[in-house]
Design goal:
alpha+beta; PH-domain like; 4-stranded antiparallel beta sheet; 7 strands; elongated
């Protein structure tokens, strides 16, 4: 998906400030809103739930002595409310996807998220301990980022761009992105190159502090 410059305060689409010398964009993308609606906002599960509730209403509330119009009237109200709820969730998913832009550079990952209040999270590649890839159908997938150190981004600040159920130690999540295999390989390569730069910096050579990612970190 081609990024659009929707936020006038950005130095470039998805970036709160211009990139410094030596840093360049490797990839940008946004979630697929239909998949986001299903995975994050659970539209499909709620559709099944509402359908079951309507069926239960028919079984328990159908009045054989009343007119067909009377019985259908109650079902129509319940069904309309269910459709409105699903439509609002789908709209929220679409707005969330349209205002989200993930950026991978040769030195960091930037997540611009938020519908009303826009937040930008800068995640230097040196902060990333591991990444877990979750492939989906048709080449889509998620990338969950495990961060080093004690500092954490609040789960509610990240949601829906947070790995589900990792509340105490939230993991930023690049959700429902296309061409997941190539994007994950690109990220892995950028991470390795960045660690190589850090290991060969004068400070790292003097302190001899190892900065290696586990070999299985990017295993699917």
């Amino acid at each position: 998906m081609k990024p659009h410059h929707e936020h006038e305060f950005e130095a470039a689409p998805g970036l709160p400030e211009a990139l410094p010398a030596g840093e360049h964009i490797l990839w940008q993308g946004s979630p697929d809103w239909k998949r986001l609606a299903v995975d994050a906002f659970h539209v499909k599960r709620l559709s099944i739930y509402f359908a079951a509730m309507l069926l239960l209403q028919v079984v328990l509330s159908w009045d054989a002595s009343a007119s067909l119009l009377f019985n259908l009237g109650a079902l129509t109200i319940s069904g309309s409310l269910a459709l409105i709820a699903l439509a609002l969730l789908a709209l929220t998913a679409k707005l969330s996807a349209s205002t989200t832009l993930y950026t991978i550079t040769n030195k960091r990952i930037v997540m611009r998220i938020g519908i009303v209040l826009t937040l930008s999270f800068n995640l230097p590649l040196r902060w990333i301990q591991a990444a877990q890839i979750k492939p989906q159908t048709d080449g889509f997938g998620d990338i969950a980022l495990e961060l080093k150190g004690e500092d954490r981004i609040a789960y509610l600040h990240l949601w829906p761009h947070a790995r589900p159920w990792y509340i105490n130690q939230p993991q930023p999540l690049l959700r429902n992105i296309a061409d997941i295999e190539n994007v994950s390989q690109l990220l892995h390569k950028a991470w390795l190159e960045r660690q190589h730069e850090i290991e060969n910096s004068p400070v790292a050579r003097e302190t001899r502090i190892p900065v290696r990612m586990p070999a299985t970190a990017f295993a699917q």
